[in-house]
């Protein structure tokens, strides 16, 4: 009866101001999920999101009353959220894939003394226990928001629907930016149709702060790919709590994609129009905080080129029978970008995207009601800054204004260079896939794989310096295959086989060419050799000429094709970069690199490494010897 009452009750701050979009109106399967969640979590009332402007105003009002956010008077409809300082990033060590058989979820290392680094597994029994220890009554005194959301344009053939229940109004407001939320989604969800169930609570702990409740000691993020469920407890932060993003679009998404024959990837999508008016789309997979958002919104340093953004973080790629190519959609509707380093020079389009209707998290607050972070243009004379911990910003080393993983959350539609086809429900045809990372040493600015199978090895061998996007420390070079290490929903060995199967499973197919890029190579003094940002168009230009099969611009090396001397357009670039250094493929370095990839694959993935990948590795070693 308590449950019944809470299901009926509309939170005071909504009633009677929003219209009657209640649990009763939901399809039976969604209603059952909401009722079960209420039974378990015992919120005081329930609000089903209709996605309206009016509703958003009321959620924002509540967040202001709760002191979770403050209004940023300098911008229209924009807010600053400051989290509990213990809840600032994804927590990879507490993120689990839960399946009947462990080997479906993660690879089995070659011997028991090796700790697996390709995801964490938990049994379904232990999951039940973890839920029982955390969720009963966890929403007491709080409103449960029911968020029907679509990943991809509502009703599109490549789109998928989810329903998240959460006790966090911050999550409700951010999900509204990051996904398509509300009534149209429910209208589209036919009785009996599949949807992903996503249960989220920020939890409660004895020492939590009222403005940002959370339970850092017991945070846990659980995925059940066998029944398309996500259960997340203890954190209100981004990737842990906006369950459409990493949990659904990548982890659960990749398992659905495996079953259905497509790919769910940690990739940006951009359209590039050449000076001749020829337009092509490419995807690029870089680890978190390695510049996906910057490349996705690039302002060309070469005249005549136009870059347009489809997405900055996630791509769902599926074979299209008409074009016989892989087509990609961006399943998201917003950007959840890393703030530090973003400015009007490095990424003017991101800056323009966040001038209104945005939520900033853990950045500095200026005395004129704006935001500031490391790398942003200096604020005007006389303006002071309060740091993300609420203290006066002094510029003292070790006390940044913004947390290194602070974020902006902005609607994709506000990006000045958003692609006209960014919401095309059949996706855009992909001509090239780029892999990349932060590699100070040895890895050339760009190289092309010899073919798709070799490209799979290039993706599998990806490594990058650790960043602030998760709990890792220091600048250690970590393996991050396909930039998916934190996001695989199933065994990475099976994932490689699934990539390889794209060659044959659809019949005739024109697969994208695969490249590796590295904007981050340094000289002996530790200075970057390549200017990056808008000048990266020079590399994209070469890539697009390769997509057109121009064979006069390549030179074969043991690791792949690199640009032939003089074939990169460096016009107007000053100073001229040292292309010899940027494109060199040092043999000793690469012998060690191949060894470490081999060690990684053999130790971590062992018998699940596909034979083709081992053959490719063998061939690489032979070319290097
Ligand atoms: C996150 O950390 O919350 C997140 C969304 O990850 P990423 O940095 O990969 O976008
Ligand atoms: Mn990401
Ligand atoms: Na993060």
TrEMBL record:
HAMAP family: PEPCK_GTP. Its cofactor is Mn(2+). Belongs to the phosphoenolpyruvate carboxykinase [GTP] family. Residues 33-258 form the Phosphoenolpyruvate carboxykinase GTP-utilising N-terminal domain. NCBIfam families: PRK04210.1 (NF003253). One of its GO terms (biological process) is glycerol biosynthetic process from pyruvate. CDD domains: PEPCK_GTP (cd00819). Keywords: Decarboxylase, GTP-binding, Lyase, Manganese, Metal-binding, Nucleotide-binding. It comes from Apolygus lucorum (Small green plant bug). It catalyses: oxaloacetate + GTP = phosphoenolpyruvate + GDP + CO2. Monomer. Catalyzes the conversion of oxaloacetate (OAA) to phosphoenolpyruvate (PEP), the rate-limiting step in the metabolic pathway that produces glucose from lactate and other precursors derived from the citric acid cycle. GO terms for molecular function: GTP binding; manganese ion binding; phosphoenolpyruvate carboxykinase (GTP) activity. Its EC number is 4.1.1.32. This is Phosphoenolpyruvate carboxykinase [GTP]. InterPro entries: PEP_carboxykin_GTP_CS, PEP_carboxykinase_C, PEP_carboxykinase_GTP, PEP_carboxykinase_GTP_C, PEP_carboxykinase_GTP_N, PEP_carboxykinase_N. Residues 262-623 form the Phosphoenolpyruvate carboxykinase C-terminal P-loop domain. One of its GO terms (cellular component) is cytosol.
